[in-house]
Write a structure and sequence with these properties.
With 341 residues, the protein is mainly beta. The protein contains 1 helix and 28 strands. The protein has a 4-stranded antiparallel β-sheet with strand order 1-28-27-26, with no helix packed on it. A 4-stranded antiparallel β-sheet has the order 2-3-4-5, with no helix packed on it. It has a 4-stranded antiparallel β-sheet with strand order 6-7-8-9, with no helix packed on it. The longest helix has 20 residues.
Length: 341
């Protein structure tokens, strides 16, 4: 009992110290000029899947060739992984999967490998340079004891996975060996986002917390709370000094690593459904979020105001992402279509 009281006292002391150091001036008080009307329209529709799309991911333009920079990968429960040219809408590859219960997919930075996983508990790696047609699985990374919820390449030769077994893992792609296990969450880990060049990643989980991890040491560096329900999506801010989250509590939030606090909430009285996916624009001014109500809402990161609605899907928006040149947003939906805005 005395230990419990001591923990409560220490928590209260930490909270008090944080409040003393906090800059309580909101971003809205900085007199940010209002945004003009957004001219975001549907520019392309990618048709080819025949069931719910669960995930999509753009290739990283910095490390891929210019011809590959417009490519993205999508995963659907029709049992197909499709690599698209987003500019021409052509399919570069259609890869049949061993398990159709796929929940995530990822493009390697160099544009040569793609990965996916889901209810099979396995992260499957495919080499796009393979001469085999159709492309067969090159490596299967198996150690998780729960479903694979998300995977993101750290480099071409390493990938981080998150799972319903409450852990994340770092893998060597070439050898298929597991290098690190990250375990501190008390619920299914739903999403991860890897920082550019900083050796860290952030995870969001069903314990309503987001955690920042050091990849090399495997330690949890920071834990951010505030959400009232499962965190389904996390995404690093372009500077990698903050990150955004989307939750089943119908709110998105912006957390800052340096001040170790929540900076902004993105909510609306009339939006009562959960968020499936989030992404920042290249400048960081816009925060895009996909919702269960079939829409993608656009938020002004600085003021917290809703500045746009991208409507056009006929079912849940399950995934979204910004191309690395910042010129296109792709949304994927349970209606089996991908739309480029």
């Amino acid at each position: 009992m005395s230990t419990k009281l001591e923990i409560q006292r220490l928590k209260a002391e930490i909270k008090s110290k944080k409040e003393q150091c906090a800059d309580n001036m909101s971003l809205e008080d900085k007199h940010v000029p209002p945004l003009g009307k957004l001219g975001i329209k549907t520019r392309r529709v990618l048709k080819g899947h025949f069931a719910k799309i669960y995930a999509m991911h753009w290739v990283s333009a910095e490390k891929s060739s210019p011809s590959d920079a417009k490519h993205l990968v999508s995963a659907s429960q029709d049992g197909k992984l499709i690599v698209w040219n987003g500019l021409t809408t052509n399919k570069a590859h259609a890869i049949p999967l061993r398990s159709s219960w796929v929940m995530t997919c990822a493009f390697a930075p160099g544009g040569n490998n793609v990965a996916c996983g889901g209810l099979d508990n396995i992260c499957s790696i495919y080499k796009l340079s393979s001469k085999e047609q159709p492309i067969k699985v090159a490596r299967e990374l198996a150690a998780h004891t729960g479903y694979l919820s998300c995977c993101r390449f750290k480099r071409d030769d390493s990938i981080i996975t998150s799972s319903g077994d409450m852990t994340c893992m770092l893998w060597d792609v070439e050898s298929g060996s597991q290098k690190q296990t990250f375990s501190d969450h008390n619920g299914d880990v739903m999403s991860i986002s890897v920082s550019e060049g900083k050796g860290t990643f952030v995870s969001g989980a069903c314990d309503a917390t987001a955690k920042v991890w050091d990849v090399d040491s495997r330690w949890c560096m920071q834990t951010f709370s505030g959400h009232e329900s499962d965190i389904n999506a996390v995404h690093f801010f372009p500077s990698n000094l903050a990150f955004g989250t989307g939750s089943d509590d119908a709110s998105c939030r912006l957390f800052d690593l340096r001040s170790y606090k929540e900076l902004m909430q993105y909510t609306h009285d009339k939006i009562l459904c959960g968020i499936t996916s989030v992404a920042f624009s290249q400048s960081g001014r816009f925060f895009f979020a996909g919702y269960d109500d079939f829409n993608c809402y656009v938020w002004d990161t600085l003021t917290g105001k809703q500045v746009g609605v991208l409507a056009g899907h006929d079912n849940r928006v399950s995934c979204l992402g910004i191309s690395n040149d910042g010129m296109a947003l792709c949304t994927g939906s349970w209606d089996s279509f991908l739309k480029l805005w």
